Amino acid sequence: MERILKGKIREAIKVLYNSDVNNDLIQIQVTRKDFKGDFTLVVFPLLRFSKNTPEKTGETIGNHLVSTFPAISGFNVIKGFLNLEISGKWWTGFFSEMASQSDLLAKCRVPDPEVILVEYSSPNTNKPLHLGHIRNNLLGFSLYRILSACGHKVIKTNIVNDRGIHICKSMLAWQKYGNGETPESSGMKGDHLVGKYYVIFEKEYKQQIEALVNKGMQEEEARNSAPLMKEARDMLVKWEAGEKEVMELWRMMNSWVYAGFDETYRTLGVDFDKIYYESDTYKIGREIVLKALDIKILYTHDDSSIWVDLSGEGLDQKLLLRNDGTAVYMTQDLGTAVLRQEEYGFSRCLYVVGNEQNYHFQVLKAVLRRMGYRWSNGLFHFSYGMVELPEGKMKSREGTVVDADDLIVEMKETAREVSLELGKLSEYSGVEKEEIFRKIGLGALKYFILKVDPKKNMTFNPAESIDFNGNTGPFIQYTYARIKSVFRKAEQTGIEYDPGLLGKARAGEKEIAMIKLLRRFTQTVDEAASIYSPALLANYCYDLAKEYNQFYHDFSILGESDPATRNLRMALSKVTSEVLSKGMWLLGIEMPERM
Question: Where are the alpha helices (DSSP H) in 226-345?
């Protein structure tokens, strides 16, 4: 309709003021809720043609449109804004077309699709996935689905941080205190077992620091002089040198972690097209750094470490290789970026990484640009806020994080308790109930995280997330299941939905309100893709579910005596269920048929 209106307004300007007007001067937006109307024309840019006041110009254009374009049923002018009202007949016709579409996302397809890489998860192999990783994975996976819905070729990638001093800490602690413990002997998932030894390292390391400080050493010196830290650094040097015993220990413990990660990913419902490993890409990065040093793009410090000076770009000096030849995070990120470009030729690469790494990605882009990689302009840091619990921040090294696995189990159990209290699942088998509990629990978790603007920090409250009456996943899932029950009842009573009757229906105010909201679906998907915000789509699904529930409460659907009106309400219900299902699917959320 916006496109049609622009054409009609351009024609009106030609007739009324004998002037041709560019499309960019015709500014149309959805009318604000506190004003009457559907679409609003901003009149001010057109005053150069009318040579009149904003109010008079609006009235003149409005009268012309009403007399020449039957879809416009009325208008009002508020200062320099012309609010246009669209007729119920047009809305019904629009909805008839929408209801007949087999692909609700067809209008989202872009004319020139891109190759886009989305990197998410990025776990360390020294600990299990936690609540922060859940937000990361859910954001990345939903971005993949939303961008794919717009026609882009999207590759889901993961970079596993499987090397470095933090990995050596877990390895060293297991070597010293593990007594050969394995996932099989302990009954623990492998990632949880390795995480246990990371915490043990930090505990022992802290005690060593305290002992040195008590002997009169400054704390910073004590941190560097503690025996455990020295051993961990020695292990890192041996690892980079490929020493057999260290490599065997590394491979064994990483295999435990990968098995644990895979189980969590499956449960969470996310996956990847390509997994990169820092243990491979840092080597590529090191070669890139050494080549750049040869052509004087980088410089060597007095201690033989290699640096880049970005002070001329408002940044700082950045270490790229340590004086012992070992790599830093930036080294592997350089290698990973170059390798991905060679493999996929992407136009955009989105790094789903927390906002504490904002500076890191500014530097990464600047270093690649300095090295002559023009495609680095296509690198984007999808920076998101931290997740906290009602009791405060989580700390991995102190073992106070909320493990993803534990949280998923808790969400399912909470879903079980709430569902059983409501008493709506008594007729289902045990297996059916468990599947519903799983969908509700995960739906609550995913929706609660994704409905928040990604840029904002958030507090995750499991009890709030599973409320069946608020802005939650279970509320939307229940609305979908409610619609499904309407059609099961229709089938049982012999009432059939007939698409051919839609053109005969006369939509009332409430039906038109539903149609307007349904129309916003593809626009919301487009906007969510353009600004990388699954939250827009999540909150749209809630608004639609809330509007439908009010509609369901106010009007009879199957009990309506007029066949055409009943058919329209059934169509509205059907399309609403399809939009909710597709919208939640784009967020990675499953919809139970019954609740």
Answer: 227-240, 244-268, 278-294, 329-344
